[in-house]
Amino acid sequence: MAYNKQMTALKNKRNVIDIIRLNSPINKAEIAKMAGLSIPSVMKITDELEEMKLICSLGRGESTGGKPPEMLTFVTNAFYLIGVDIGRSRVKVILMDMGAQIYERRYMTSTATENPESFLERVADLVEEIIANADIPKERLLGIGIGMPGILNPESGKIIFSPNFMWKDVELLPVFRKRFAAPVLIENANRAMALGEHWYGVSQNVNRVLTVNLGYGIGAAMLDGRKIDRGGSGCSGELGHMILKKDGNICSCGNRGCLESISSGYAIAKTAQQEARNKNAEKILKEAGGIPEDIEAKHVFLAAEAGDMTAQTIIQEAIEYLGIGIANCINLLDPDMVVLAGRIMLSSDYFWEELKAQIGNHQMKYSAMNIRIKKGILGEEATAIGAATLPLRRFINYGASYQALVDL
Amino acid sequence: MAYNKQMTALKNKRNVIDIIRLNSPINKAEIAKMAGLSIPSVMKITDELEEMKLICSLGRGESTGGKPPEMLTFVTNAFYLIGVDIGRSRVKVILMDMGAQIYERRYMTSTATENPESFLERVADLVEEIIANADIPKERLLGIGIGMPGILNPESGKIIFSPNFMWKDVELLPVFRKRFAAPVLIENANRAMALGEHWYGVSQNVNRVLTVNLGYGIGAAMLDGRKIDRGGSGCSGELGHMILKKDGNICSCGNRGCLESISSGYAIAKTAQQEARNKNAEKILKEAGGIPEDIEAKHVFLAAEAGDMTAQTIIQEAIEYLGIGIANCINLLDPDMVVLAGRIMLSSDYFWEELKAQIGNHQMKYSAMNIRIKKGILGEEATAIGAATLPLRRFINYGASYQALVDL
């Protein structure tokens, strides 16, 4: 029973924090109403939060008859966070506050052939550099969150398998825990991106959200309320390996005709490279400086926008299959919102408009009729921002308790 | 706070019921340990359950040193339930106890052209007949559960759209509530089947379960612990409308190349009928008595087992796409178990073995490595049994409270 009481207290505190965070400025009577708590219960919590400097008073608001109520606001820069996005071609490290305001950023180039240990030490160097530069009191840095592609165990901090890096059984956390006093948490990059958009971005306050990460690869993550759905063995969300072309090209996973082998940035580039070698892609080749192997997805987008038919055909096929794959997810999962994010979504407006149309074409007529299809709004740094929210989410989930972070 | 305390009490009671139900015979010390409760707390609950005759004592078990402990057991026939499966070709009504022991059954033929009201009155007649025949004290009939294909609202009891019956906006519950004093609940047929297998069948005690209903159509339902995942708008689980063949045949939903248009009982029959009209399916035609329009999926299975190549080719394609569709679900949802059930699964052992192999072929190598692929064990009556558990689940979820049923 003592445990149950503690859980209830925690839940109430977490709710109050979220209500203030998402509805600032707000008065105590409004909080009490939204949280289903008595005003004295709310006051006990808000006093504590004020003492922590997580919220503050903005003075008295407008009167609705009696004495004007005191308005409270969430202090977004009460704490700072570091987010790390370990991407296949680039690593991004950011320092931000709880409102996703970015104060510092450092990028470095990834080299897939480097051994994981020395590579991760280089990433840790960047984190160190940002901390040293930022001059933030140690106790105001809540923690470091890392997003990384592949199958990983967030509890143990182990990378089980990352096809993008060809890493197997890499212990990621020890490298960082050895060097930093602040808590360090990791999560799959697609899930980190989903958490970012849900915390600060386009899917704030939405219940069931499917976030699709369209980049070098294709991944997805499903959120149900505050809960991220990792699946029974941590492997959910492999939209990139949905097979849509029974006898299609071979995919990096070993199967044939996976969505990733048709519509990913990698696949778009590969197809264009092949066309270039067959002398069918002069305009794309020109964008890439004349060397077929240098063609990237962005060159195909540039050529398509300039009216090149080959590029347009490649992109059209990518969009059509993406539309089918995402519609298949909608028919299966029935989310309230689909968020489309990732590097490809930043490439072209045409892609976005056409993809939205293709999803609509392939979705069932009578299901998920109120679904909203949205573009992510956090841009290039969505995954880094989402990663940064990992220690923040934990801090708030445990009722703004440092203990939850120290116990990691 | 009072509300929270009540919820905790409810949760404890529900847990104790489930522990006894799934582990009978069991003593109070073991229950206390499994439920994380004190022995006096457990005794308070078990006394109440004994008074309701939901559990009873089997006398003293073996001693482990001191006085031999009293062994408790769940009384599966303390209450009775009625389950209704409204299928496209047949309606099944059963009377069973809480251990899925079936005491009475009544079947009737469905006619899709009949108007919903008179059709539902005929179903209610069957229910009435069973109740009259069974001679059960009114207070021991917990309720009536109905499983029905299509998109429906379990709260209001309205069928929003059932493509199999071509029903739109049909009020189902009033017909039954008018005629019966016992509580009536409805659920989508695929979800009812999943609940059945989870309550008494192959997926008991398994956490994340994807149940696939392979019959005239193809549907799926996802359970997460005790919770059924209906999706944001009640439309989740439309595996049958996963598009797997971009320019395939047109499906009943209006799209092209849906799994249901390739691998369902309906599709298998349609393809064979076409082959028969093209004079390519003599053996199948013979099984169906010589008339192409009379060919059903079962005739194709019979011909295939007798070595007919045309039948084997049709079934092989159905299995291959089913394997892809289910592997796609596994890669996306990462369940702990997939249960394959429905009329097609009962047709042939070859189908089951080959389907298991095809799922394995198309699943990602590094994900869901411990997944279990199982055949449902409740057979023809899985949906009716699952439907019958609707009032039972509600009764137990609310701590064996009649009030929860009366409040419907």
Description:
The structure is a homodimer of 408-residue chains. Chain A is of the alpha/beta class. The first copy, chain A, has 3 domains: 2-74, Winged helix-like DNA-binding domain superfamily/Winged helix DNA-binding domain (Arc Repressor Mutant, subunit A, Orthogonal Bundle); 78-198 and 382-406, 2-Layer Sandwich (Nucleotidyltransferase, domain 5); 202-377, ATPase, nucleotide binding domain (Nucleotidyltransferase, domain 5, 2-Layer Sandwich). Chain A has helices at 2-23, 28-35, 39-51, 116-134, 173-179, 189-199, 260-263, 265-277, 282-287, 297-305, 309-333, 349-362, 382-397, 402-406; strands at residues 26-27, 55-60, 70-74, 80-86, 90-97, 102-109, 141-148, 151-153, 158-162, 167-171, 184-188, 208-214, 218-224, 227-229, 337-341, 372-375. In chain A, the strands form 4 sheets. A 5-stranded mixed beta sheet of chain A has the order 6-5-4-7-11, sandwiched between helices. In chain A, strands 14-13-12-15-16 form a 5-stranded mixed beta sheet, covered by helices on one side. In chain A, a hairpin with a 2-residue loop joins strand 13 and strand 14. The first copy, chain A, is globular and about 75 Å long. The mean pLDDT of chain A is 91. Chains A and B meet through helix 1 and helix 11 of A and helix 11 of B.
